[in-house]
Design goal:
Number of helices: 14
Order of helices and strands: HHHHHHEHEEEEEEEHHEEHHHHH
CATH class of the largest domain: Mainly Alpha
Cofactor: FAD
CATH topology of the largest domain: Butyryl-CoA Dehydrogenase, subunit A, domain 3
Structural class: alpha+beta
Shape: globular
Radius of gyration: 21 Å
Largest sheet: 4 strands, mixed
Domain Acyl-CoA dehydrogenase/oxidase N-terminal: 9-114
Number of strands: 10
Protein name: Acyl-CoA dehydrogenase family protein
Strand order of the largest sheet: 1-4-5-8
Keywords: FAD, Flavoprotein, Oxidoreductase
Distance between the termini: 49 Å
EC number: 1.-.-.-
């Protein structure tokens, strides 16, 4: 398998080659219908260097590489793109905060595709305000190890991951809710862990799970970085997470648009292609306008992030919001354009329509993104 370089164009070409060999449209549909994770595809993508290629020699991740990979994946096997968002977060956290022993034991097999990681943060009572609502606790034992008990919810890929990066409260809430939370590397095989799949509408090839933790014993060597600073570690990934969410939403929009445009050119009514009708042309042009706008905003946000520009947080929020709206608009327009055929599960439009809805609320709701932009971009009073 040809391995990827750190150039985004090269990464895109490698993704396309891997998808062509391992994930043609019929296989993507098969795994979506069966609600199964495609381990073969994951291994092939990692083996081609699409995880390790994001890291430079200093251990810093390339935002441009990630965006290129995720956009291309999302246009095809969308669930794998969502899985890769989690893997890139794990790579970033482990490369930035892991000890040499942790990197050997957990980062190296992840980069090779031998295991995939899961990120266990959100809980039943806390999504946007998860730090304040966190009830999962990790108690330090006399031998220095920890006992973790609690519950996590909406955790992707936790049923069959190699390990979780799991956040738990280790100190009572003080003046700041984000303090006193620690990140642990928890092998999935650790006794005391139970997972239950949540039946979801979209992204069905990556199971969302409830995790139940009952006296899960973790050695001190599995603390990632400094104790009580786990949530601050996560905050350091938020800009990249918004960029990656924008890339996946953009990829969904592009995939749906290509299907809709091909349908408009080939499907006939009243003796001519349906793309000849003005109303349908307008919907396709409007979709393309939203896609191209999202592309430009994402490119600007990626450049700002790569340069370390403080304005990058606003740019990434704008890109995420624009890409989310491009995805929902385009998939809705595609469903309307294709009529009953868009509704048919044998064709991919209905899957794009379902999958796109994730990015109206992940990693933050579009409403919270607007609140953030109102404060940071427009200088308005904080609304939350």
């Amino acid at each position: 398998m040809t391995t990827v370089t750190r150039q985004p164009k090269a990464a895109t070409d490698v993704v396309r080659a891997v998808i062509s060999e391992h994930a043609p449209a019929n296989r993507v549909r098969e795994f979506d219908e069966a609600e199964r994770f495609d381990h073969e595809l994951f291994h092939a993508l990692a083996h081609a260097g699409l995880l390790s290629g994001a890291l430079d020699d200093s251990g810093k991740l390339s935002h441009a590489h990630q965006a290129a990979v995720l956009t291309e994946l999302a246009a095809g096997p969308t669930s794998m793109a969502v899985a890769f968002v989690v893997q890139y977060m794990a790579v970033q956290l482990l490369s930035a905060h892991g000890t040499p022993a942790q990197k050997d034991a957990h980062l190296a097999p992840l980069l090779a595709g031998d295991v995939h990681a899961s990120f266990a943060l959100s809980e039943p009572d806390g999504g946007t305000d998860v730090a304040r609502a966190m009830k999962t606790t990790a108690t330090r034992l006399p031998d220095g190890s920890y006992s973790i008990s609690g519950r996590k919810r909406w955790i992707g890929g936790a049923m069959d991951c190699g390990y979780m990066l799991l956040l738990a409260r280790t100190t009572e809430i003080g003046t700041s809710a984000i303090g006193g939370i620690t990140t642990f590397i928890v092998p999935r095989s650790t006794p005391g862990i139970e997972t239950r799949e949540i039946d979801t509408m979209g992204i069905r090839s990556l199971a969302q799970t409830d995790i139940f933790l009952d006296d899960v014993r973790v050695p001190a060597a599995n603390v990632l970085g400094e104790p009580d600073r786990g949530f601050r570690q996560v905050i350091g990934t938020l800009n990249g997470e918004r960029l990656n969410a924008a890339a996946v939403a953009l990829g969904i929009a592009r995939g749906a648009f290509d299907v809709a445009l091909d349908w408009a050119k080939s499907r006939e009514a009243f003796g001519r292609p349906i793309g000849a009708f003005q109303a349908l042309q307008h919907s396709l042009v409007d979709a393309r306008l939203k896609i191209e706008s999202a592309v430009l905003l994402l490119e600007r946000a990626v450049r700002a992030a790569e340069a370390g520009d403080p304005s990058g947080d606003v740019d990434s929020a704008l890109a995420k919001l624009a890409a989310s709206e491009a995805a929902t608009f385009t998939t809705d327009a595609g469903m309307r354009l294709m009529g009953g055929w868009g509704y048919a599960r044998e064709l991919p439009m209905q899957r794009y329509f379902r999958d796109a809805r994730l990015y109206t609320f992940a990693p933050l709701t579009d409403e919270m993104i607007r609140n953030y932009l109102g404060e940071k971009m427009l200088g308005l009073p904080r609304s939350y």
